[in-house]
Amino acid sequence: IGLDMLFGRRNALVSLVIVLGVLGAGAGFLYYSGGLAEAHVISLPLSISSPVMPSSVDVTISLRDTNLTLGSLPGESKQLASGTLEYYDRQGEPIHTLKIGDPNAELRLDEQNQHDFSFSNFANTAHQWDVRLNRVVPFTLLVNTGDANSTLDLTNLHLTRIDFHGGDGNLTLTVPQGAGEVTGQLDLGDGNINLV
Fold it and tell me: Is the distance from CB of 80 to CB of 134 less than 8 angstroms?
């Protein structure tokens, strides 16, 4: 009945040819896009330092369906940021850029869009970004995320502002007592916010 509505009354042979053509086109798309191949997770070490420690750093983290864990580096580390960024093999490496200004710096961590469709992406557990920031340098933090979960432990960080824009994933936020004034905005879709 559906084909009759789309194409008018035709004989069964013409309808069969149309159905087989649509199915063949779909199978060809999946084959050439790699949609039937298994997606593999790659772990990329993150290590960002600066020859001169900036007075403050504006940090922007942008990702889609990747779980995020953020915390502090141990002690008085000379690194600005360290950690591990996971991504799918056909997705491309995450992009990290550091722009040193006077006196502030800008640090960006961006997940590349995944153009290839794969059924295995639905079966795999969401991959993980584990990011540790310097605990001495003052930071502002902007996080744009999708439907994955985020755990932000601000206990030992010198944070002056946080802006979090999420989708349907959950956010666990640990804020230290006596941290002083921290401004910002938390904006989630249907996800839950757990303040610790």
Answer: yes
What is the arrangement of strands in the sheet containing 128-133, beginning at the earlier edge strand? Answer: 41-49, 79-88, 128-133, 67-72, 150-153, 171-174, 193-195
Rounded distance between C-alpha atoms, residue 177 and residue 12, angstroms: 73
For residue 25, the SS3 value is helix
Least confident range from 43-52, 117-126, 141-150: namely 117-126
Give the pairing of strands 104-110 and 183-187: unpaired
Nearest to 151 by CA among 41, 67, 60: 67
- Could you tell me how far CA 25 lies from the centroid of its own chain? 32
Model pLDDT for residues 98-129, shown as the tens digit of each residue: 999 888 999 999 998 755 455 544 445 568 99
